[in-house]
Amino acid sequence: MQITQSLHRAVARQPGAVATICGGRRHTFVQFQDRVARLAGALQGLGVEKGDRVGILSLNSDRYTSSTTWPCPGPARRRTRSTVAVSATEIAYSLDDCDTKVLLIDDPFLPLLPELRWLSKSLRTADPYW
Question: In angstroms, rounded to a whole number, what is the distance separating the alpha carbons of residues 47 and 61?
Fold first, then answer.
């Protein structure tokens, strides 16, 4: 069973039903599936390979949901999460400790991006929300 099987089933059964709501953003199951597919393609385009770690610095949101569970299934890519209540130095240490190659960063944390790029030795790519 693939982790995306439940998403495909939801799309087949109720494609226009609301899958996520966050603030003013609403996504149907079809839109959610498209978002996940585009993110998976973007990660592949960044050169993320089996065993690479993808970090996520985000609040709990629809963006977090679409980036954590679906585009990085199984052992192909490992996800790492960073707590948001620590300094850039501590986040960079955590990223390096996990050997995180790519960091997805949500809008509230953009001010930390230059410092994280400078501090982290493992990051190849750190991009604003995907």
Answer: 26
CA 110 to chain centre: 15
Total domains present in the chain: 1
Domain, as residue range, for 99: 5-128
User: For position 113, which CATH number holds?
Assistant: 3.40.50.980
Whether residue 1 is predicted with pLDDT greater than 70 in this model: the reply is: no
pLDDT digits (tens, 9 = 90+) for 76-101: 444 455 555 678 999 999 999 989 98
Query: Whole-prediction pTM value?
Result: 0.76
Does an H or E element contain 41, and which?
helix 29-45
Residue 72 has φ and ψ, to the nearest 5°, of -125, 60
Would you call 42 helix, strand, or coil by DSSP? helix
